[in-house]
Amino acid sequence: MRTIGALLKCLDRRRVGVELEESSMPVPILQLLTYTITDVVYMDKDAYSVLQIFKFELHPSVYKLQSGQKEGLSLYGILNRCRCKFGSRLLRQWFHRPTRDLSVLRRRQEVIRFFTTPRNSELMNTLQSFLRNFKNIPVLLRKMSLSHTKVVEWQNLYKTVYSAVGIRDTVRSLPQTIQLFREISEGFTDELYHIATLISKVVDFEGSQAENRFTVKPNVDPPSTRIGFLLSVPRLPAMVEKENFEIEGLDFIFVSEDRLHYRSARTKELDNMLGDLHCDIRDMETAVMTQLQATVLQRSSCLYKILSLYAELDCLMALAQASQDYGYCPPTYSQRCTLNLQQARHPLMELCTPVFVSNPCLCSDMEGKVKVITGPNSSGKSIYLKQVGLIVFMALIGSDVPAKEAEIGPIDGIFTRMQSRESVSVGLSTFMIDLNQMAQALNHSTGMSLVLVDEFGKGTNTVDGLSLLAACLNHWLNRAPAQCPIVFLATNFHSVLQLDLLPRSPLLSLLTLETAVDGEELIFLYQLKEGICQSSYAANIATLAGLPPALVQRGVEVSDLYRTGRTIQRIDQPSSEELITRCESVVEKFLQLDLDDPSTDLQGFLKDVLLPTVGDSL
């Protein structure tokens, strides 16, 4: 309640024109709606960024370079196959509010499974073709309420309503055991059909486009048909195109019921005698338009009702189409905390490489909930972590997932400790970002949470980073199995395992990504297996990165000397033989000096020969 009070006060101060109102004028709050987050899965902004669920890029158009943005390679980008704007907007809302409500997820899955069946592909194409004609209904109705409706907006409304009727007729032929289909069939009233019929009978779209204003079809309003003087002649069979309507001495006006209406010199004379009725005709058309607007607005509630249902249908067909295109499978939702993925793939990375190695993931509520993954850099540790996070997220919005089989429990939160572009730009050190993100996972994760940690502690001293990493893992492993979250942790701190810093527990699982060494070449196999990585293969990674071979070899030598406790000699110092040679050369030059000769420059000799040689030697 205190938060709502503060919000109302803030809104009151920020209102435009508040200084011109009386002091007793309240904040114009029309309605307060309640919203529960009981079944909404927790995710912060960094999690969306590092998992690449959304990714905004600058628009390629030079006209939108400063302010325009477009969706880049992201999960939302590849799943958004929606045909109307409301579907895309609802899908984005689903992404921002992943749910653990099994009834909602199963409702979405039954529709997706129906449309992923090959025999129903033609039905999906038909429905999507109707959805392409859906326009912004709230904006159209608002303009109608302000009497700012243009001809193109009447056309858009008619297309929308006509397409809605087409969807209704198609859905009624589908299995009514599916909840969404049943709601569309039962929630659709005859008012929508009445609106479509009324617009079709009243609005003359061809005439409106020709005159760039709202025009009414003939015989719509009996009083208006008697306004003005026209010459009516029957339409001959040869009069097909508009060019055939031209008659010398007559001005063509319109065609109605196989009769052509013209203005002649006599009708114009009558108009001039009795007054110019053109303005009266426009006034009558405006009155008809106003009456039509009022009728549409009175029945607008049915438009809003079907809009949400059709947007949901659009989203689910988009997810079904993506599932067909990329070979996804429907997940199985479990009541217990489990994560079982067979031949799982990264939904984005597999689109960027010709061959992608799939990997499994198995966690139960009693064992394997904390997985420590080691391996050399570039072996695929981070990709595997993101792969698990993305698959879980996709299941929590009701989508099919990139795996052969998938069983997922009711995850209540996804916590990440991964560096993102947004987190670096705030100006904090890398390690402070690590601590902030890790604190969220430690303090707020439950036994139903998924925690993804990548390279924690690398931004500080090795001993400190290793100690904090071991402490965090011990904190989770010492919890009761039901309270320990599902943790996937990738690290290059192999000492956390080699020094036996972690307790022996059935909750702990040690994994590594397989590699092979062919001579001096390191080959990544990207295959997950149980075990520990025995070497970081730093020299091989440096060679693959393009560092000069001499530099890499020197690094290996220094590493060996440091590991064995031997003295590390600087390679930029001369050898003892070279120093002796330099000293002998200086002595010889000194002996050749004639100190009795007044022209001898002793100061120059000391400055130019002796001091530089001694400095180099030291």
TrEMBL record:
<dbReference type="GO" id="GO:0006298">
    <property type="term" value="P:mismatch repair"/>
</dbReference>
<dbReference type="Pfam" id="PF00488">
    <property type="entry name" value="MutS_V"/>
</dbReference>
<dbReference type="InterPro" id="IPR027417">
    <property type="entry name" value="P-loop_NTPase"/>
</dbReference>
<dbReference type="GO" id="GO:0140664">
    <property type="term" value="F:ATP-dependent DNA damage sensor activity"/>
</dbReference>
<dbReference type="GO" id="GO:0005634">
    <property type="term" value="C:nucleus"/>
</dbReference>
<feature type="domain" description="DNA mismatch repair proteins mutS family">
    <location>
        <begin position="449"/>
        <end position="465"/>
    </location>
</feature>
<keyword id="KW-0227">DNA damage</keyword>
<comment type="similarity">
    <text>Belongs to the DNA mismatch repair MutS family.</text>
</comment>
<dbReference type="InterPro" id="IPR045076">
    <property type="entry name" value="MutS"/>
</dbReference>
<dbReference type="Pfam" id="PF05192">
    <property type="entry name" value="MutS_III"/>
</dbReference>
<dbReference type="InterPro" id="IPR017261">
    <property type="entry name" value="DNA_mismatch_repair_MutS/MSH"/>
</dbReference>
<protein>
    <recommendedName>
        <fullName>MutS protein homolog 5</fullName>
    </recommendedName>
</protein>
<dbReference type="GO" id="GO:0051026">
    <property type="term" value="P:chiasma assembly"/>
</dbReference>
<keyword id="KW-0067">ATP-binding</keyword>
<dbReference type="InterPro" id="IPR036187">
    <property type="entry name" value="DNA_mismatch_repair_MutS_sf"/>
</dbReference>
<keyword id="KW-0547">Nucleotide-binding</keyword>
<dbReference type="InterPro" id="IPR007696">
    <property type="entry name" value="DNA_mismatch_repair_MutS_core"/>
</dbReference>
<keyword id="KW-0469">Meiosis</keyword>
<dbReference type="GO" id="GO:0030983">
    <property type="term" value="F:mismatched DNA binding"/>
</dbReference>
<dbReference type="GO" id="GO:0005524">
    <property type="term" value="F:ATP binding"/>
</dbReference>
<comment type="function">
    <text>Involved in DNA mismatch repair and meiotic recombination processes. Facilitates crossovers between homologs during meiosis.</text>
</comment>
<keyword id="KW-0238">DNA-binding</keyword>
<keyword id="KW-0234">DNA repair</keyword>
<dbReference type="InterPro" id="IPR000432">
    <property type="entry name" value="DNA_mismatch_repair_MutS_C"/>
</dbReference>
